[in-house]
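INFO  loader      accepted 1 record
INFO  loader      residues=196
INFO  predictor   begin
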Amino acid sequence: AALRSQLLERALNRGLHDDEAARAQLHQWFRQKGVDTDDAEDNAGHARQVLLVACSGWATFANLLQGAAENMLYELLPCVTLMNKDHFVIVVRYEEGVTDKAGLNQALKRVSDTLKCSVFAALGPVAVDDEGLRASFHSAKDVFAYQGLLGSSGLYTPQDIGERSGSRTVCTEKEESELAAILMADNVTDLRHWVN
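INFO  predictor   done
INFO  writer      dumping tokens
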């Protein structure tokens, strides 16, 4: 299991284009877990997406919550998962009506309702090859970075943040001191109001 996790992490971060044996192992794991189907001989043409998920709401048992959510989604979806400290990564087979945005929203809602927690998810675009899967992961990471601005729950895609233009990069001395006070107080709500 640890080797598979390392392979998946390496595939998503750097790619496996130079290691054919590692790619074969990864695709065998994908086939075992239903991410890839057996109907194609080569590994091209399998539609997959990357989903980054973070759960909140169990203050004292945050790690247990992440694990429980990961297990539920693992049972609900044709996927493989990779656990990180504050979130987990899911590589899911894309199937219209099952694991499209509406289907993933249903699965995330089920997790949220069952575990009584908030679920934030960032979804990368559909990929049909390993390089596309890597791009899907990086796109989902970009969306995941907006979690503080988007809130603690919901499923977001690159289209949801594509229109964001940011704001000016220079602030007055008064604004700077207000921001410093909010940051030192570690108050997320005040920060969100100040930014907006």
